[in-house]
Amino acid sequence: MAENILTADGMEQLIRTYFDACNAGDVDAVASCFVPEGVHYFPPGMYGGPFVGSRLIGEKWRDAVQRLGSIWTVDSVITDPETARAAIEWTHFKTFQ
Fold first, then answer.
1. Is the CB of residue 15 less than 8 Å from the CB of residue 87?
2. Taking the mean position of all CA atoms in its chain, how far away is CA 75?
3. Cys-Cys crosslink for 69: which of 36, 59, 93, 95, Cβ 3.0 to 4.6 Å?
């Protein structure tokens, strides 16, 4: 990963790297976008709760790509390097359904 991701460009690149890795179903590439104990949260009751751990997150998205034909698009990215926050609008397509 880039040495200094806390620039607007660096933050957006990390986000796009993550979505590219998700689309590829690449467990290692997805995991590299998180700290080892990273958590991916969902609305209550969805997917049985959050995915905990960078590797598990990658495995779950690989499974979605293989089983459902999942593809994600990044529709909009807003970054705020001063607060280390970003907001993303994205779309999830399940091409096998």
1. no
2. 14
3. 95
Spatial distance between the Cα atoms of 11 and 14, rounded to a whole number of angstroms: 5
Q: Per-residue DSSP letters for 76-91?
A: EEEEETTTTEEEEEEE
Residue 46 corresponds to which tokens in the numbers above? Answer: 């969805």
- Side chain identity, residue 36: P
One-letter amino acid for residue 87 of the chain: A
- Which residue type, as a one-letter code, is found at position 35? V
Amino acid present at 34: F
Q: Among 87, 91, 34, which residue's Cα sits nearest to residue 60? A: 34
Q: Which tens digit of pLDDT belongs to each residue from 16-65? A: 999 999 999 999 999 999 999 999 999 999 999 999 999 999 999 999 99
